[in-house]
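Lab notebook, page 48
Experiment: co-folding of the full assembly
Goal: obtain a model of how the components sit together before planning crosslinking
Operator: M.T.
Materials (sequences as entered):
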Amino acid sequence: MSEQEDLQRLEEARDVMISALAQTMVIYGVTPSVGRIYGVLYFSEEPMNLGDIQEAVAMSKASVSNGLRELLETEMVIKVWKKGDRKDYYIAEKDFMKNFINFFVKQLRQERSLIVKGNQQALPVLEEISEHGEGEAKKQADQDLANIERSMSYFEWTMRLANAMESGEIFDYLPPNKEKKDGKHG
Amino acid sequence: MSEQEDLQRLEEARDVMISALAQTMVIYGVTPSVGRIYGVLYFSEEPMNLGDIQEAVAMSKASVSNGLRELLETEMVIKVWKKGDRKDYYIAEKDFMKNFINFFVKQLRQERSLIVKGNQQALPVLEEISEHGEGEAKKQADQDLANIERSMSYFEWTMRLANAMESGEIFDYLPPNKEKKDGKHG
DNA sequence: TATTTATTTCAATACAAATTAAACAATCTA
DNA sequence: TAGATTGTTTAATTTGTATTGAAATAAATA
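Observation: model returned without errors.
Model output:
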């Protein structure tokens, strides 16, 4: 088996893994195309520039540029400089744990923020009716206030979870894996 | 202020909260419309049937039916029976914690499954090239194998997290909130 | 079984998102 | 500064998904 053939088979194997990675990233709110950009960068040993990536994913320059911006914003991709080169180069953040925590913490906070904003708008009305209202109206207002209180206690929990992840405290409870003992390396 | 006016203001306040809830649910992978269905059910004291819901959200019967099915599948909504009534009635699962854990655990497992499937396809090729290949091909294969190993250890962690959530063990580390001490109830 | 009522399926439409080509802006080089 | 190279923004197209009305199906009663 020639090395040329090996490289060919290797590329096919990578394509499978990149596709899986791209699909997965849909979960993280990006399109499969953007996921493919990340996948290509993930498996590249070298930093890649816009042209390289464009060639690898077969997309337009504009799409690649937009996709990269998105990936940079969420810190899943990092921009690097090569001295003496005008082009921008990019590498993937390969630490899935970091990516996951980044994403997840942001999501939890956004969720809380949305609900709290809604509740804050409603709260004065509900409290007033609960205090001065009567009959069905008061009953419903009290019910809504109870709902809000329950949800606030839920969000206190998710915020503690988010903080524990961000600070790394979570790993005190749920430690990351130690190295494999039977690992066949090299 | 008449009770009629109070009920009017109450409905407006609820609309705000329902909109926020609907927006939030987009994070959980449903459309805003489906989110609105959940929101309406969340704030309803009574179980609602398809017709009730349709009226409240101003959508077609078909959309409501599809939306409900989606919400039932993810267990965010529960079907209940009223005896002597042919219609189906629905209530929202109001426990955000339960909804969150349901969703999150499913997502983590799906993510792992996707990647593992991709890796399993690639693994034989990579291992063969790593053992018998030469030069650049072998170097790249080894690199990919190292990537796979790192990712597997990440997934071991997320699976432990998922299990801890599902079993409730997570609450040993990160307890849910106790009741408020200064709570003004009734 | 016929008849009413509730729910789902399906084909057509409307809507939203992704992708692109082309124009534009910025940066370097000579 | 002109000319060339790289990167971004815009507006238009394409593609895909959500939503709907109408028809079919299923369920319940009499």
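Interpretation: Chain B has a mean pLDDT of 90.
Next step: discuss with group before ordering constructs.
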